[in-house]
Structures are given as structure tokens and as C-alpha cells.
Amino acid sequence: MTSSSYKEYDIVIIGGGPAGLAAGLYASRGNMKTVILEKLIPGGQLNNTQDVENYPGMDHMTGPQIAQAMEEQTKRFGCEIINNCNLTNVDLSTEKKLVQSDKGNFSAKVVIIATGSEYRKLNVPGEKEYSGKGVSYCAVCDGAFFKEKELIVVGGGDSAVEEGTFLTKFANKVTIVHRRDKFRAEKIIQDRAFKNPKISVIWNTVVPEIRGNGNGVTTVKLKNIQTNEEKDFSCDGVFIYVGLDPNTLLFKNKVKMDEGGKIITNEKMETNVLGVYAAGDVRETPLKQAVTAASDGSLAATMAINYIESLEDKH
Ligand code: NAP
Fold it and tell me: Ligand 1 pocket, 241 CB below 6 A?
């Protein structure tokens, strides 16, 4: 990649979810020439969440409303946002970072990666149709909608077992359906679940289909993978925790990641590459919420400003 015909910025932010928008706000308020490159429209997973009850101070606002407020605030301080922007290549190897996309080419002193992650899907019939109508990937976001209901949780990792336990705060009964005969979750998380009278477990079983009445989930089909026996199981909701996929394909072999493809940062949001930061769900982090993503983004931008000022002192 050569740097001719590149539009120059101080900071290029890749991804316009809460992490990217907060980074854009802090960077532009810090007088940095900043652009956010967003693959769809700003807001990230906020756009898929109708009721957000846990973003401090934003009670009674929907996810898309919060996203829009964040976008307007960020733009007000001069941050550019380019929507529907698909990246084709990035070169992070030199002091000047280069980003190519179908909306033009950009160079910057700093790149902040805020591309988020996606909940891995089961890819079974009914899952997409009932997403947001009984199928969920976020107990913290949606658990309160299932007071005194019956729920299925799919998966056997820390998320499934921990979130299944959390869901018993609301639901009358939570059944964890796992494809093997033991969980991979940490023992302490398992022990807490096994002690909980509202939790039961169905082992060696997968969910090949989710059914409903058009408005919400009513039943799942369960299949025992040892006996191949199938049965219907009545429930009001299905929480799917079969892992997370970070959106980091473009950065493979360019910044250090863990074995699951999540970007590794220190507490300043610095990656192993000087001038490259990561914020939000794309990095290895124990809590994936809009508020923690925004916190990461503001920290990444503040550290980026310090770095750019140190470059200016050097040159
Ligand atoms: P995970 O550890 O990758 O576990 C995914 C689970 O889903 C596994 O039990 C897996 O089964 C099952 N699974 C995968 N694909 C499936 C499919 N198609 N159908 C049915 N089951 C399927 O994911 P996670 O639980 O979301 O955790 C992600 C990371 O965050 C992990 O590193 C975890 O330790 C960490 N985490 C930590 C905490 C905590 O420390 N409190 C809390 C949450 C998450 P198998 O077991 O058979 O592979």
C-alpha cells in the first residue's frame, strides 16, 4: 500500500458502535481530525436492542435512540462518520497507518479498532425469525422480560452456565441444554448452577429447531445426540450462548489476538502495535455491554491523543 491519494486524519476509528462513537467523541473534543468508518449505520448492537434498561442515565430510551443521541453528540464536535463503509485492507506496520475501503482511502497517526463481535448463531430454523421475540443472546439485556416464565439456555461454557443462573432472578425455571455430558464452564460457576433449585440440565442434547406462534417462542425441538430421540419442549424463551466471534478477520497477523481472535490490549487499550488501539467487544474483556464499550472507547481515544502529542514533540 502506498500513501498517495489517502485522505489524512489524526485518528481513524474502525466501527461505529458505542466504543467507536465514544472514541470519536473524545478524539474530536480533543481537537483531533477524526473519522469513524462504519460498515452499516452507527450504533452497533444497540440497534438490535429495543429496551435498554442498564445504560446509566438513559432509562426509557430504546437502543436505537441511544445510538442516535451518541451519533449526534459525536458529530457535534466535528467527528466525521462514513456509513456503509466496507474495509478492503489495512496496513498498520508503519508510523502512518493506511486504511483502504470502498468509500476511499485513509491515512492516520492512530487507528482505533472497535469492530465489535457477534454472538455465534445456532443456525437452526426459527432462530432468526424469533430473534428479539423470545430468542436472545443477552441475559443482562433481555432477562427481565421473562419474569415467571420458562426458559431454555443453549451451551455449556461460562456464559451459558453463568447467564443461566442469572436468568433465575426472573424466570421460574431455566433448563440448560448442552451437547455433551459435562460443562466446560469453570467449576465454581457450575457449582452455583447445580445448587440452584430453578435450574435443570439436559445433557447430550442439541436444539435443531425453535418454534413459536408468530409473536413469540412456544416450543423447541430437542434431539439427544446419543439416542437420536427427538421431543418437543415447551418454553417462553431461548437464550443462546454457544460462543462469540469477534470481527477481526481483517486484522489477522497484524495485531496480537488470543486464540479466539479477540484483540489483546493492556489497560490503556493499546495493542501490541504502536499507534493501534482496540476498544469494546472486539477485545478480550469480561463484560460486553454498551457502557463498558463506551468506557473503552473514551480511554482509547484519550491514550491516542497522548500518543499523537508525544509524536509531535518528537518530530
Ligand atoms: P465458549 O467458552 O466458547 O463456550 C461455548 C459453549 O457452546 C461450549 O460449551 C460449546 O460446547 C457450546 N457450543 C458451541 N457451538 C455449539 C452448537 N453449535 N450447538 C450447541 N452447543 C454449542 O463461549 P462462552 O461461554 O460465551 O465464553 C466465551 C469466553 O468468555 C470464554 O473464554 C469464557 O471463559 C469467557 N467467559 C468468562 C466468564 C467468567 O469468567 N465469569 C463469563 C463468561 C464468559 P462444547 O463444550 O461441547 O464445546
Answer: yes
35 C-alpha vs ligand 1 centroid, how far in Å? 35
Residues 6+ apart with CB under 8 A from 16: 24, 36, 37, 38, 41, 42, 43, 44, 71, 81, 83, 114
Tell which CATH classification among 3.30.190.20, 3.90.1150.10, 3.50.50.60, 3.40.50.620 matches the domain 121-240: 3.50.50.60
CA dist list (Å): 64 to 26, 136, 180: 21, 17, 38
Q: Is the CB of 206 under 6 A from ligand 1?
A: yes
Q: Which residue out of 242, 281, 282, 292 has the highest number of ligand 1 atoms within 8 Å of its CB and is therefore the one to mutate? A: 242
Q: Which fold has domain 7-118+244-314?
A: FAD/NAD(P)-binding domain (3.50.50)
In tens, the pLDDT along 176-214 reads: 999 999 999 989 999 999 999 999 999 999 999 999 999
Provide the residue ranges of all domains of the chain, joining segments of one domain with +.
Answer: 7-118+244-314, 121-240
Note the pTM of the prediction, 2 decimals: 0.73
